[in-house]
Each structure stands twice: as C-alpha cells, then as structure tokens.
Amino acid sequence: TSAGAMRVEEFVDAIDQVLDRKLEPLKTLVVASYNNQHWAPASSTSSVRQPFRCEVFSAYNAVKDDSSATWCVVTGMWWPAMAATGVPYVRTAHIIGRSVPESDWVDMQLGCSRDVLENVVPMMASVEVAFDTHRVCVLPTMDDATGVESFVIYILDPALKDELVYADFSGRYNKGLPQQWTAPPPTVQERAGLGEVQATTLTFGQLDRQRLVFRGEQLPAKRCFTAHALWAVGRAKQLRGWDTKGLEITADHIGWQSPTMEAQLRKTAIWAAMQQQLHLEADSGSGGASVETEADG
After folding, report:
1. What is the mean pLDDT of residues 263-288?
2. 279 or 159, which is more confident
3. What is the pLDDT of residues 125-160, one digit of tens each?
4. Is the alpha carbon torsion for 120, 185, 154, 237 positive or negative?
5. Residue 100 region by backbone torsions, left for phi larger than 0, else alpha for psi between -120 and 50, else beta
6. Residue ranges in 158-260 assigned as alpha helix (H)
7. Phi, psi of 40 (to 5 degrees)
8. Is pLDDT at 121 greater than 80 in this prediction?
9. Region of residue 134 (phi > 0: left; psi between -120 and 50: alpha; otherwise: beta)
10. Which residues contact 259 (CB under 8 A, 6 or more apart)?
11. 292 by DSSP, 3-state: which?
C-alpha cells in the first residue's frame, strides 16, 4: 500500500541518518589525514604556514608594537623576536602535535586541521622542546574559592629544574651561525607569580606550578592540554620513574564544553582509549616520545 511504502521510505531515511552519524567521525578522519599529508607546510618559513603564525601571535597579543619582541605564555616574559636570521625565540607551538595519530586528533573535536588557535600557543623554543618530549606539561585548573580558571605548569623531569631556559635555547641553536647572535637584554621583567626575573637567569624549576600568562582573551582548549598531560604524566610515572609529587589526572580535567550526554560519553571513550594505549606502551617498555623537527611543532 501507499501507506506501507511511505513507512518503508521513512525507515530507510532513518537508517541513512543513523549511518551518516556513525560515519561522520570516519569522514573527519579521512579529511584530516588528507590535509595532513597534502597541505601541511614543510617548515615554519613556508608561505602556507606564515599567515597562520601571524594569526596566532595576533590572537594571543604576543608581539610588541615595534615588533622587537614576542611573548611566551609559559615563561610569561618577552623575548627578542629573533636570535638570528631564521631563529625565532618564540614559536607557534602545537599542543597536540603532528606526531600524534590522526584518530586521537579527531577526538579533540576541533576540526580537520591542527592549525587552530585552540591547539596552538606562543611558546619559547627551548620550552617547546621540553613540552614535546613530555618533560613539561600543563593542566587546566579552577580555584574553588574564586571560580577562576587557569593553566598550571608542571616540570616533570627533576633533571630539568636546574637548567636555564635561555642556556638550553642558546646551546641548541647558537651553533656555527654565520650571522650575529642576539641575546635577551639584561633588563628585569615582572613575571606573575615570580616577581622580578631576568630572561637569561630564568630556570625551568622557577616555572614549576606557576600559571600560564596570557595577554588577551584568546585561550587554548583545555582538553588539548589535558590530553598531552595524560600522556606526559603517565610516561613520567610508569616508564621514566619520575616522582610527580602526587599529580593525578582525572576525566574531569578534559574540560569538554558541552555537558550533554553525547559529550560525556565521548569524553569517557577518549579517556578509556588513552589509558589503554598508555598501558600498552608500559607493557612494551617503549617510552620514547617522538620529537618534531619543524621550527614550530
């Protein structure tokens, strides 16, 4: 009958809608994989990436008016724009880097490309290296008394705490350069939580348990920092034997914006997948973190 045919058509439409919803994550994954392979720029100086670098620095208000210095949200200080030609002090650092599998990036629900403001912050180059190798992590937190949210830095590697941030940078990049090297000026800066600090004498240990310092309204996604911290803390405890001073990460740290049932279920699934992968790595004994070689991770 026509009524029966209508019901069949409605049933088929309903099945199609369900399939579309089920396949949407797969579609996103395929597009993300294609973009990463075909559109990712080869270096930080490429014409493809440069506009995004400018967008990041602008959004985070990280460039002085005269362009002489750039701001790092981790050190909470100004650094010279360039140490030498092609050697910037502060870089556009990806929180979830390109070495992370596409399937894990899709779980962040921030689109196909990792080049989004929620996944990138201005970060001093030597800090970025420590962050990428999971010697440093950042966790979102909330002050119960004031309700103010912030991002707290944790130095996980005990051996890193006495190292100078600038000395690490200079040791890595000031090698056989044909041009003049520009060191940070000896002037003292006011670092929130630390008081007066000179850039060349700042240690990683001084940054431990300090907060990221932002100069504008743009903020990164809490779930990106939490995902990174989950891997970093897990490896610190299980694979590297570092004392994390009781630092624990719970599913609530993910910081999903939507409180709906679907978001909660997806958050739980992501948490479970991360824990499973972490245990697999611990069982296999592989603790090495892949380090990106691009100037901006």
Report:
1. 59
2. 159
3. 999 999 999 999 999 887 777 777 899 999 999 999
4. positive
5. beta
6. 165-173, 204-207, 222-238
7. -65, 125
8. yes
9. left
10. none
11. coil
C-beta neighbour count of 288 within 10 angstroms? 10
DSSP 8-state symbol, 95: S
Backbone angles phi, psi at 70, to 5 degrees: -125, 150
pLDDT attached to residue 50: 83
- Rounded to the nearest 10 degrees, what angle do helices 165-173 and 125-132 cross at? 90
- Residue 77 pairs in a beta bridge with 72
Contact assessment for residue 227 and residue 96, using Cβ atoms and an 8 Å cutoff: yes
Rounded distance, CA 146 to CA 164, Å? 33
CA nearest to 54, candidates 39, 73, 67, 42: 67
Instruction: For residue 103, give the nearest of 23, 18, 28, 19 by alpha carbon.
Output: 28
> Residue 204: which of 160, 154, 157, 153 has the closest Cα?
160
